[in-house]
Design goal:
Homodimer. Its cofactor is Mg(2+). It is an enzyme of class 2 (transferase). Belongs to the UPP synthase family. By secondary structure, the chain is of the alpha/beta class. It has one domain: 3-Layer(aba) Sandwich (Undecaprenyl pyrophosphate synthetase), CATH 3.40.1180.10. The protein is 45% helix and 14% strand. It contains 9 helices and 6 strands, in the order H-E-H-H-E-H-E-H-E-H-H-E-E-H-H. The protein has a 6-stranded parallel sheet, with helices on both faces. The structure holds 3-methylbut-3-enyl trihydrogen diphosphate (2 copies) and magnesium ion. One 3-methylbut-3-enyl trihydrogen diphosphate (IPE) binds next to helix 2.
Length: 247
């Protein structure tokens, strides 16, 4: 049987890494300096996930709406992603991390697409933490693409509309094969999902913390895990002590 502590460890943690710009502003630095400082925390978060025995870690790195930022910032963010994959892929591979990428890959620059494909390909057989990078990701875009795929299967005569159920959708969205997140953490004090995992987070526990992403260290990660451990997940049922009282 699982120990109590193990039962309280989320299998899948998804993080909305927010607050890089504000962190930089507070120091009189350009926003890009905040993004660069944020990359250090990405490395640390992967290590902490491994240490805490979390199997899946999803990081929201760039949203489908982030293209609307100033051109220079978008280009800096692309540069940081390129640099991260070039520099860190070998290390992630050594640490047995399996990389998955979610989001729309068709509309990103071809060299970045190649890098993302290569990261997945190279680490496919690894058995450690699965690091899911949400890049050019928007939940509504993901659902639209999934609906289109399902409609194409129906119109090709390969799928009976009456057989479509929740599994069909879960198996068609970008996270196919990955369990839903148990815990979604957002840094920077904002309390919204910003188009992140709208299908998958139906029953996730949400933890909003004031700390800005470049300050999100191992200790802050464990504090969020501790908060999760005290939550009572009911999934629409009643909690165990209530059943005991009622019966
Ligand atoms: C999160 O930090 C990083 C990305 C969205 C790429 P922000 O850049 O959103 O930082 P704030 O929210 O402006 O402080
Ligand atoms: C969400 O943060 C996207 C990422 C963390 C990559 P944003 O900063 O883009 O979200 P809003 O604009 O505050 O909702
Ligand atoms: Mg933000």
């Amino acid at each position: 049987m699982q120990s109590d502590r193990a039962a309280k460890t989320p299998r899948h943690v998804a993080i909305i890494m927010d607050g890089n710009g504000r962190w930089a502003n507070a120091r009189g630095l350009p926003r890009t300096a905040g993004h660069r400082a944020g990359v250090e925390r990405v490395r640390e978060a992967v290590r902490t996930a491994h240490e805490a025995k979390i199997e899946f870690l999803t990081l929201f790195a760039f949203s489908s709406e982030n293209w609307n930022r100033p051109k220079q910032e978008v280009s800096d963010l692309m540069g940081i992603l390129r640099f991260f994959i070039h520099k860190d892929l070998a290390e992630l591979h050594r640490e047995n991390v399996r990389v998955r990428v979610i989001g729309c890959r068709e509309t990103v620059q071809s060299d970045i697409r190649k890098l993302l494909d290569e990261a997945e390909e190279r680490t496919r057989e690894n058995t450690g933490v699965t690091l899911i990078i949400a890049f050019n990701y928007g939940a509504r875009d993901e659902l639209v693409r999934a609906v289109r795929t399902i409609a194409e299967a129906v119109s090709a005569g390969n799928l009976d509309p009456a057989s479509i159920d929740e599994h069909t959708v879960s198996d068609t969205v970008d996270t196919a094969g990955i369990p839903d997140p148990d815990l979604v953490i957002r840094t920077s004090g904002e309390q919204r999902l910003s188009n992140f995992l709208l299908w998958q987070a139906a029953y996730s526990e949400l933890v909003f913390i004031p700390c800005l992403w470049p300050d999100f260290d191992r200790k802050a990660f464990y504090e969020a895990l501790n908060e999760y451990a005290h939550r009572d997940r009911r999934f629409g049922t009643v909690s165990a002590p209530d059943i005991a009282v009622g019966s």
